[in-house]
Specification:
Blueprint (H helix, E strand, L loop, with lengths): L2 H16 L8 H17 L6 H5 L11 H25 L4
């Protein structure tokens, strides 16, 4: 399967799964976020690494369940380690 087919099948699955969802995160919400966020991201002139600080590193504080909090903390620590290594290399210290 090529990339476009994977995206199409994923969208079909999410559309079917979230059809009629009453949480406010139905298919159309996902669609709007996907397409507006991606187009905004593509037009961005800022450094891509900033996305870690603007979004990804904030996620752990937005989780509701204890399981989600644990997973998010694990991912958060992983991203911090990645960023530490990235900046060491970026500054030519590796």
């Amino acid at each position: 399967m090529n990339k476009e087919e994977i995206i199409q099948k994923t969208e079909e699955y999410v559309r079917k799964t979230l059809s009629g969802d009453g949480s406010g995160h139905d298919w159309w919400h996902v669609y709007r976020v996907l397409h507006s966020s991606f187009s905004t991201y593509k037009k961005s002139t800022g450094a891509t690494i900033n996305h870690f600080f603007e979004k990804w590193l904030l996620l752990k504080d937005l989780m509701n369940t204890s399981a989600a909090k644990k997973l998010a903390l694990d991912k958060h620590l992983y991203m911090e380690q990645y960023l530490d290594r990235f900046f060491i290399e970026w500054e030519g210290k590796a």
